[in-house]
C-alpha cells in the first residue's frame, strides 16, 4: 500500500515535468507535438495525482515530525503548562482526597475533614546542608553560623538546620520550587495510610524515625525507611516549615480543595519578606519528644531559627 502511494506521486510528478518540458520547447527526446487541450489535460491529471498522493502520505507522519507551531484542541482548551513526569530528587504525588487532622490529637487538629489535593512533586528528603551551601554560594545569600549547624548536622548529607521560614522561602524560590502547604505536607506524609498516627502505622517506633533525643542530633537523610510514597523523614529528624500561616481554628472553616491558611500561594511567594504572622511546622524532630504524629501541628514566628528546624520543597504538577 505504501509503495502504491509513492508510485502515484512519482507518476504525477513525471507527467508534470514532461508537460513543463514540452511547454518550454526543450528537446529531450523525439515526441509528437501536443495540442493545447492535451497540455491542459496533462496538467490537470498530474496535479490531481500529486494531490491524491499527498493526502494519502502526509497524515502518516508522526505528530512529533509536524510543525512545532501546531496546537492540538486539548492544548487550546487547557493552557496550563504540564511539567515533566520526573524531577530529579523529587517524588510525584498523585492528586487525591484524604482525611486531614485527628480526633485523638490536639484541639487545633480538629475536626477531621476531607481535603482534595492536586498532584505535585515533593523532595524525597529534607534539604541538606550541602544543598543549602550550594544555594548560599550561588546567590551570596547571608551565611548561617556554620559552626552551630555542624554541631547537630555534621555533614553535607545531614538536613539543613537553623533556617528561618524566610531562609526556607528564599531557597525554594531560588530552586524554582516552593514550600508545601500544610495539606500537601500531611497528604504526602500519610501516603494513603488513612487515619494512622505515623507514616508507618499507629505505634511509635525508634527504628523508623529519629526523635526524642534518641540519637542526640540529626541523622543523615535517608537513614530510616521511607513511607509509602518513598519519602524519608516525614516523621522526626527536623521540623519542616510549611507555607501556611498558623491558624488554630483553620480546620473548622478550611476549604475542601487545596486549602491554605492565610493569603494565597502567589501572594505569599511574591511578598514573603513582609510576612509577620506565625508559620506552620510539621513532622516533629530529633529533639522534641514524641510529637511526630502526622497530624501534629507545630508553629513559630517566621524569623525563628533552631537546631531542629529545617524544610523540604514541592513543585506543583501543573502550573
What's this model, at a glance?
By secondary structure, the protein is α+β, with helices and mostly antiparallel strands. The chain is 29% helix and 12% strand. The chain has helices at residues 2-23, 36-57, 73-77, 129-139, 146-152, 165-174, 182-190, 265-270; strands at residues 90-93, 96-100, 113-117, 120-123, 239-245, 279-282, 297-300, 309-310, 314-316.
Strand proportion: 5-15%
What's the alpha carbon Rg, rounded to whole Å?
A: 32 Å
| Average pLDDT for all residues | 84
The helicity comes to: 25-40%
CATH superfamily of the largest domain: paralog of FGE (formylglycine-generating enzyme)
Low-confidence stretches: 26-30, 57-81
Structural domain tally: 2
User: Strand tally, please?
Assistant: 9
Looking at the overall shape, the CATH architecture of the largest domain is: Alpha-Beta Complex
Biggest pleated-sheet summary: 4 strands, mixed
Which class do the helix and strand fractions yield?
alpha+beta
* Shape estimate: globular
- Counting H and I runs of at least 4 residues, what is the number of helices? 8
Strand order of the largest sheet: 7-6-5-8
CATH fold label of the largest domain: paralog of FGE (formylglycine-generating enzyme)
CATH class category label of the largest domain: Alpha Beta
Kindly report how far apart the N and C termini lie: 45 Å
The SSE order reads: HHHEEEEHHHHEHEEEE
